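Continuing from the previous page...

OK, I double-checked the sequence for Guanylate cyclase domain-containing protein against my notes and this is the correct one:
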Amino acid sequence: MFADILGFTALTEGLAKRGAEGVEKITQILNTYFSLLIDIVHSNGGDVIKFAGDALLALWDASDDDLLLSTCKAASCALRIQEELSSMTSQDGVKLSLRISVTCGDLHIGIMGGNNGRWESFLTGKPLREAGVACENSLPGDVMISSDAQSLLESISVSVLSSGGFFHLKSISARPESMQDLDDYMFEDVPAKLKNFIPVECQARIDAGQLGWLNELRRVTVVFVNLPNMNENVSMVEAQQIFIDLQDILHKYGGSLNKLSVDDKGISLLAGFGMPSMTHGNDAARAVLAALQMHRHVSMAQWRCSIGIATGKVFIGIIGSEQRCEYTMIGDAVNFSARLMHRARGKILCDTSTKKVCKEAVIFGEPLVETIKGKLWPVIRQQKVTTGSKVNCSGSMIGRKEEREVLAQMASDIAMQKENVNKIIFVGEAGLGKTRLATEFLKIGKERGLNCFLASADEVQISTPFHPWRSIFQHILGVDEFGMAGNEFNRRYSDSGFKADHQAMLKEKLTVMGLSEAFVKLTPLLDSVLSIGLEDNQRTRKMRGEIRAKNTQKFLCEILRLYCMSTSFVLVVDDGQWFDSMSWALISLVSKIVPTFHVVLFTRPMPSPQPTEFKNFEMTCTRYVLQSMTDEDCVQLVVQILGVDKLPLAIEDLIRDRAQGSPLFSSELALSLRESLNASGENLSSQLDELDLSNFTVSDTIEGLITSRIDRLTASQQLTLKVASVIGREFDFLLLIQIHPTENESSIESDLDVLRYHELITPCRNGRETSYIFKHAAIQEISYSLLPESRKIELHSRVVEVLELQHGNVHITLHPILAQHCEKAKIWDKALRYLSSSGGEALRNRAHIEAIDWFKRALHAQTLSSAMTTEERASLYQKLGEAQFLTGDFHSCQLSFKQALELVGRAIPSSRHGYWLGCVKAAVEFVLIWLFPRLWRRGTKEGYLHLIQIYERLFHFYYYLGNPLKALYFTLQMLKVSVLKEATTCRRLSFTSMLGLALQVFGMRSISSWVIKQSLEGINAQSDVSSQAKILLWGGVHKFSLGRTDESAVLFKQSLEFGRRIGDQRTVDEVSFNYGLQKYMLNQYECAKLWAQKIRTSTEKRNNWQGELWGLCLEIACEVRLERLSRDALLSLLSRLADHLRFSNRAIPSDTLLGMSVMAMGWLKVGERTKALACCSTVGAILRDYRPVSIHTSWALMTLSGVVKRLQEGEEGSREELQELKRSIELVLRRSLRNFQILTMRKEAVEKC
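Thanks. Re-ran it with the corrected sequence; updated structure tokens here:
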């Protein structure tokens, strides 16, 4: 019986696009289907003999039974399979169906091969050929039987003659009784001779008891060979000779024969290059060369041969069920190589991936671009082999003479206490030796007596604020987090008495260092860095968000300042590309304040867009770019690693040709040489001299090199390495033991010793004896990639379970790590909890970029979790919007806030009419709530607090956007909810002042002034400093807009004082911009420029896009008026503003209008009329759909009107467009001049000038 699954190819192609996860999903679906098929076959007395991709072959032995009875059993089994499985649908919605054929007669069962004791079984005969043809002539859901089977079943079945001489079986009247399942052999019970039929790559792991760990995902070159004329008519002797010759060729080139099949299309072989324990790095080239030799050998024997080759990531492992299974390969590369084989027609075809990696070894013909079963892929036809010249690559690495001289000079300057020692940045791609240079500088620093600290970042901890600083501050403050081992520490960590003692010791240490009492009271803030469970006190408990982060930064900076008073401080940063934004901000801050603080940074090129904090720091540094190292340096590095005096010339040539200037590649090549020879010292030198390089190949890629090194390990060592990679680049021995499948401590410890010897891992630098780190991130990543998804999920789940069990009430600092593992384990309920907590902590510590990432991931997790209520989802969107607002990303925050409001049933109106009705309704409800508070249904105070925060942020958004109606709507909503929440009087007064601003833009100046006056008079007796700062800010803006600049200046200064006192940087920035704008309006350009520079400095540190735009615009406007800046300097500012607008998706219309108006003025000043005109065109397009009414946009348009007037004087072709723009500007300004008296004063002053 031959059963072919239909629809699986379409399913495979769809899932293959998902990468490794999709490949494993294919395997899971296939195993599920095969398990059901195998159960039915066994229950009907059959035995599954072969798997062929998505097909299955089963036999019913009739040697001791009546042929009629066996055929009846097979036919009954086929009908039952169609009844139970004919319309099975996969989880992805793809319908799977079957076509089945049943034949009977004599089959020949034999074995072929024997090369290195490896045998393959095969079946051949008329029934097998008929089964394949019958399936091809059937439809989904059919059971086709041969004429011989029909003759036997004629009296007990109903069948219809079909095409090809086969019969469509409809039913059978006398089904045999189900038979018991056949006895199954377990691998442990397989006789020794039968092991010769098991692929060699499986043997070691089976012997090690790792049957469940055979599955892997790895890059393999697949070779399909077909001999179409070789069938049962060929003599067995001749077939055996051809087959063993092909086995010899495959073995010679390092391939592994995976499958032999015989059908109506002849004999087919499936082989893989790069299989487990058989990786050579250049496997694609080996596969092509093996194919050439096989094709040549078979052709010389006068047989036709077609070969298809494809390279890609495939699943390698077990398919089937516990009763019957097979070790095979599944993936797109397998399917495509089979298609190429069928299309080859006596030639060799390969895909572009194979050609790309072996083009130096083989010359290919012109590509044949054809449709292959629905795929338009270029097909490459091989023609001949060449020994063409090798490509010489310039190199780089061990020497690094210039870089070491720079580092040595810097160390000497610091040691001699020279002033203005430059900070240094080394930038280089992965594998160029940055970590080695960092180690070299630490050595130089130690020799010079410098106080050097290493801050090594971790990709897993990239969203954890201050993580690279943790070990440094633990050392400075005498806090040894790892001074206690394992479970003892975990028990004490959660002990409140221990925490209190620790906090008391910290306070004493801080006092001894000379910190003031005010700072000592902020000791709990240090927990975001130290991670030792410090609990908030009454003072720090009130600090939130920006205020908390600002105070934490100041505290850390003060500690470093005092520490550096008696000694220099050299910070060596490794893997800077994984630094979090808070760590960058701290480096920038300390660099400006502490003169004896020095930085040496090693990083990969930063991703675009670069973190603002890094850009600010980079501007103060000397930057060096690491290049590839020289050929001689590559050779010397290999000599050093091998511990020999010199290398044979042939090996030196190999290094020059293949290392490509990569230190990592060179070192991996050296280790690969050492491990393959398994020798050292003089013995190694002699073996190197005798080494036949024709039998030693090196990968073309680092991935191939590392994989080949991993494959040389024992099965136990490979498993330990893979399990450790799940924990992360850095892993703890105690945790590894608890998640390892064997849990054999001595065996795991022995494995780690071997891994250390092979330089795959090394003891960690953090001082823990039980902690290890992968020698390079690439080793961890490649080891991890070899695990199938199901094993990754299992191990990540185990990590979560162990960490939670160890730590009981898990401290907040572990939440980011647990969140990562929960995500990868797909434990979405826990992932959601830890992601939300990590986001909240990041927001609390002012790490806004990291907070956005955490909350977005949490929102993704909640779509896959059932553990979140609607209110909790709304809270997540609110926090995400808050983080986006604080980075100036107004577009995104608006969408997040709207989503939050919709979730709690407070959808925002969709039309202008709806906003008017909403304003009226909110005003009426406010009065009713005020008059009859007890009759109003109240929600939770926390829910109302979230609503107030959302409404307040949306007011800000629409106020600066210049949309008075929406600003008024959200102000009234704020006031209404504040009464329900029973907010403090000062808080309500803050909202009332916002209402006054909203009323002003409607022309209600008298009412607006009265409302603002009431707000200002009500703050005297209040203690809510944050609300007072906002009331004074809005009061100042109101007075400023009315032209009462003396009064507004007083209010602005008071607001600044309150904002700085509590660390509310957003309020400080808004006050600074408005105060600076006021100075500009009063022609005090020098003073306005200083305020603009303050805004830029502040907002660049915090990655606040809008604030940085304000500062740039105001500074450029001042420089144009002052006329002191050189043309080049002004051009630099204009280019920066242009880039700021061009490369951000955060700009709202009012921001774009402001930026373009100021740029137009600047471009005109430097004589770039064309660019000025382009800016005017952009503003004109905005004004067609948007009529802003705010003092800031009105100032920008007033500035632009002067530019338009000057442009009209000389632009003949654009006068009509400029005239239209002028009318639009006048229309907007006409309304603004009525509402904002300061604009009238400014206009008169400009006209007078």
